[in-house]
Amino acid sequence: MQDRWTAATALVDPSRRALYDYARRQDHPVSREEAADATRMSRGLAAFHLDKLVDAGLLRARYAAPPDQPRGRGRAPKVYQVADDGLVITIPERRYELIAEILADAVADDPAHADDAARHHAQQRGQILGMRLRGDDLRDVLADLGFEPDSAGADRVVLRNCPFHILATRQTALVCGLNHAFLTGLVNGLDVTAVHARLAPRSGACCVELTTQ
Length: 213
Fold this sequence. Notes:
This protein is α+β, with helices and mostly antiparallel strands. The protein is 50% helix and 13% strand. The strands form two sheets. Strands 4-5-7-6 form a four-stranded antiparallel β-sheet.
């Protein structure tokens, strides 16, 4: 998962922010020379900051010759374009894009029974993620997703944060059901056989908890 705090920190520097904003507004990959001219800095300084933006995951870089350069004439310059994912930071962690993707897939898959389709997609999405991360610690995975896991005894883990908070307050039954399905799939995908996700609504926390009972 992308380190969004590192990416956000990279944009604190005004030179990097200017370069990123310029690249984001273009409809083509930009070279170091073009970016330097547009932001009125030296080519060397622009190259340094552009590469730092690549390291932070905000830009992607490749070598590509300009369209008007004859084939085989000189070395292709390094060009930069904005990474597709963008950057969103919320405190505490929110994952509204995940719910949106699940609901969109459900409506496209079975619009007449979108609620059932959504639960299926949520569990499938969780299981695929769990299988990809199999071998990782369950609590670390939950923390990365923003659930803020916390022990509540030897056999129970409560989730202090709901990544879908605003939606859950508006459509509680739907969103909590999708959350439960997603976490059930996640646990199954991670192959943590002794742990079960169960609905346990509580104020100020996630509606799901994990238990070994």
